[in-house]
Structure formats: C-alpha cells, structure tokens
C-alpha cells in the first residue's frame, strides 16, 4: 500500500489530505485524515505545518513512511502557492520521495463535476486581484486551457468565442456576470479532501510523479507587487 499526503494552499482556506492506496490506484484508496487549513496571508506556513503534523499524528504515521507528496501548484494566491510548493519540494528532497503536481483550478473543476456530472463543458473562474481573473476551460476530454485575463478588457475576452453554446460556469457570486451567454452557473465550491486524493492518485498511478526540483508553481502571471510597479511605471514613464 502506498502512503500519500497532499495539500493545496492556493486559496485563503487550504485543504490537506492523507491516505493509503493500493499501488497508488486512483479508484482504490482509504483516507485517514482530511482537513481545512485555516490560513491567511501572514500565516500560510504555520497553518500548513500544523496541518501536516496533525495529519501524521491522526494516522499514526511517521514522516519518513510517506511514498509521495501531492501538491496543488496553482494558479491562485501567490503567497499560498509559494509556501505550499516550497514546503512540498523541501519535504520531497529531505525524504527522497517524488512530488505529484496537480492544477489547483483542475481540483475545483473536479469538485464541480462531482456535483454536476452531466455538464459536458465547464469553466472555472477565480479572482486574481489587480483587475484580473484566472480561467480554466474544459470544453472536451482532451481540450483544457488555463489563462489569466483582465475582466474589464473586452479585447482579452476573445476566449468566449471558442466556447460551445452551453456549459457550466463555476465562479464566486461576483463573477457570475462573466459567464458566457447560455451557460449555467455554479457557486464556486470548496475542494474536498477526497477530490484532492483522487486527483493526486490518478496522476501518481499514471506515472506523472516528478522529482522535487522538477515541480514549479503555476502562477500564470507576475505577483501583485510587480504588477503594481508596472502600472506606476506606465503612468510615470
């Protein structure tokens, strides 16, 4: 039995899960611990490390007994992603075990599909601050794209033209108005531990684990501080 732990800290409230699976099989796993990580911009690392310690204690496992670490690589909160990925890389190197990277938006999409399984096309939209949003569109089994757009700039919203006539728009309430015409709306659901475990297990079983130093954050854009600097430079050349 493979022992795995995974976390995603791309949002203000993260999620952590610890489970066992038969050789990492995606459909055959037993969750031993799952929890929300109550963190904020100043306490991401404290909340994450406390959550890891609590998970291992709950299962009666030692850190060295893990076979792999799953990690949500973003996009999302710049600080949260940086802390989460850095912790995973550090533990991976220290223990000599691989990391299993998964898209944070992909996790939300999986959670949404579990609630609305009949949706053929689906798009997840989350705030990226600085007048931008992150969007993940799944319009066919093999057609997935993730990008960042300025929600107030019509010239950057050409992605709508490539979408089918109907689908499921998954977003916070304030981003309902960005939904393509004819699409249904689902309020952005929190990612559950079982969704995280299933996504990581599928990647692990498919051989998509990577050495710690091969895994990098998927920011999709520069951090807010750099964007603010660019704006000031544009206003004061």
Could you walk me through the main structural features you see in this protein, from its secondary elements to its overall organization?
The protein is 30% helix and 29% strand. With 237 residues, the chain is α/β, with parallel strands linked by helices. It has 2 domains: 2-104 and 190-223, Nucleotidyltransferase, domain 5, CATH 3.30.420; 105-187, ATPase, nucleotide binding domain (Nucleotidyltransferase, domain 5, 2-Layer Sandwich), CATH 3.30.420.
List keywords for this structure.
Nucleotidyltransferase, domain 5; 2 domains; 237 residues; five-stranded mixed β-sheet; globular; alpha/beta; 5 helices
